[in-house]
Amino acid sequence: MRILMWESFAPGGPIRVGGHHYAERFLRSGGRVAWCVGPLSPVNLVKTNAETRARLGLWRRGGDRLHDGRMFAYAPLTLLPYRPYPLFDRPFMHRLTLRATLPRFRGVLARAGFGRAEILWMSTGSPFLALLDEVQHDVSIYRMSDDTTAFPDTPASFAALEKEVCGRADLVLATAHSLQTRARELGARRVLYLPNACDPAAFESGPLEQPADLGGTPRPRALYVGALDHWFDAALVAEVARLLPAWPFLLLGPARADLGLLRGLGNVRNLGPRPYRDLPAYLRASDAGIVPFVLNPLTDAIHPLKVYEYCAAGLPVVATPMRETAAMGAPILLAGTPGEFAAALEQARREGTKRRAERLDYARRNTWDQRFAALRAEIAAIGGRPPAATAGGLG
Hints:
This protein is α/β, with parallel strands linked by helices. The chain has helices at residues 18-28, 50-60, 91-96, 105-111, 128-134, 158-168, 177-185, 200-204, 234-243, 279-284, 297-300, 305-312, 323-327, 338-351, 356-364, 368-382, and strands at 2-6, 32-36, 64-66, 71-74, 116-123, 136-144, 171-174, 191-193, 222-225, 249-252, 268-270, 288-291, 317-319, 333-334. It has an 8-stranded mixed sheet with strand order 3-4-2-1-5-6-7-8, sandwiched between helices.
């Protein structure tokens, strides 16, 4: 079985989204995966960051063969990028973006053995309509993991394009309840609520030795893992850090937003991105995991993967009361103001390991293997598709 997956991040980077975990399971079940990211534009040849440099490497090399050759990773470069700028934000740029690639995207796929795919997997930020037209496929899946219209840099034309892909896709996967409702309102024929999850074993059995860069850092420690982007509430973290001067606040991930409010705070450390394989060690060396997200329409649609991974490591979790964190039934503490957040962290410190077993149980009931089984069952139900594994509960 060949699966073409268009996702947000190049393989091997510090950020792992749900698509990475599903790709691993497609590979384990005997499939072959084409992992595509981007597309790049000529501007990216001179204006780069760590992620675009990884994509440029894939483009210049003509793609990489990974996982014993069963995964083909590639990033196309297009002359018609769909971007939030005049002219570039027109629907035709989105539709034609994969026809204006150098070299032609369809030819690259054919040479890699993906001239046709049994499953076409499209993420929220993908050129989904272009993919539907350019890639021959049997089943099309649109994974809606964000309310992209709420992002400040989303083109105004995106809403109409997303409505079209919801109407054309065979299956829409919604990671949040609000997205499930949105997909149905946009005309999706088949919608499956499939939230994020975790791999508990990787976090339960992480290394006991703490990372070297935490040497000399006092306890208790509050850890944030993930991108520091629009949704990260720097103002909240700054106020909580002032209220709890004895707590170091460790930020682990790429910074894409202005963190000026955190500068000068001696107990806030921005450690930058780290390889995903090192994440369990940082979690085991911390005392609480935090999810300090702003409360707005964008975060209403976020189902935070990090909650599951914090729980899998046995960490107490303090999060702002987003719609999904309030509804996911996790053993976490919700706090909306700096005072409440600081009090919740102190409560977590006092409780120590009292609720550790409850957190581990929650993680074990919400695994990527269970989600993948549910996905396979749904694909099989579409008709004439790959046989389903036993579908686990969604916890």
